[in-house]
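Run log // design_07
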């Protein structure tokens, strides 16, 4: 009888499933997990660094009130300009029999006539003006002019090595003489300008021609003062 009972108990033991064993061990897993979670939270609160909030406060500057400019009143747009009226050709009747009365000396005496216009040539000697010419005056006495340049050259400027060019107006007569001279463009030195005016009186020219007629003319002419460099 005992021999038959042992196999029955063994069969009952063999019928226990994995689910049954898990249910039996659930209590130990549950309490073990709770203990582990408690210990972990305690350590986090105990050893975690203390955190403080940063100061994020700010101060605002006092607002300044700006006065707005007065409102500008915009004027209304101008009225549109009216278009010009279209011209209309007027009709006029002209008599074909109209004649002009004859003009005779008896009806218009000579004593009553206005004087004839006078065509006087303007005086060009007053100021430099453009003078028409076909043949320009040419210098006749270059050697004498060169000597005058050396004589009139201011010694102080020549010794200092200072030179310059003075541009003059020449008013030349029909005989080729200089009747008037004026400074057109200065050299920048008063002494050189005055010396150039003195040298201008020495110039002699051939007469200027306008077609085949000898005329008085204004011409522009440069006078240069230059220190000659002597070779060593």
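design_07 sequence
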């Amino acid at each position: 009888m005992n021999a038959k009972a042992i196999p029955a108990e063994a069969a009952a033991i063999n019928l226990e499933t994995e689910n049954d064993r898990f249910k039996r061990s659930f209590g130990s897993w549950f309490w073990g997990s709770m203990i582990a979670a408690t210990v972990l939270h305690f350590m986090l609160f105990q050893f975690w660094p203390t955190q403080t909030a940063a100061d994020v406060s700010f101060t605002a500057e006092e607002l300044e009130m700006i006065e707005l400019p007065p409102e500008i009143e915009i004027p209304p747009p101008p009225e549109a300009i009216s278009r010009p009226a279209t011209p209309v050709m007027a009709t006029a009747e002209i008599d074909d029999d109209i004649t002009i009365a004859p003009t005779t000396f008896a009806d218009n005496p000579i004593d009553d006539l206005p004087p004839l216009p006078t065509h006087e040539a303007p005086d060009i000697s007053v100021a430099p003006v453009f003078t028409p010419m076909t043949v320009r005056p040419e210098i006749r006495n270059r050697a004498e002019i060169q000597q005058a340049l050396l004589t009139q050259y201011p010694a102080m400027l020549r010794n200092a090595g200072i030179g310059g060019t003075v541009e003059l107006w020449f008013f030349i007569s029909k005989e080729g003489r200089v009747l008037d001279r004026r400074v057109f463009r200065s050299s920048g030195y008063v002494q050189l300008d005055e010396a150039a005016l003195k040298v201008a009186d020495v110039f002699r020219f051939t007469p200027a021609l306008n077609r085949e007629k000898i005329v008085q003319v204004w011409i522009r002419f440069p006078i240069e003062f230059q220190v000659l460099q002597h070779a060593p």
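The longest helix spans residues 18-47.
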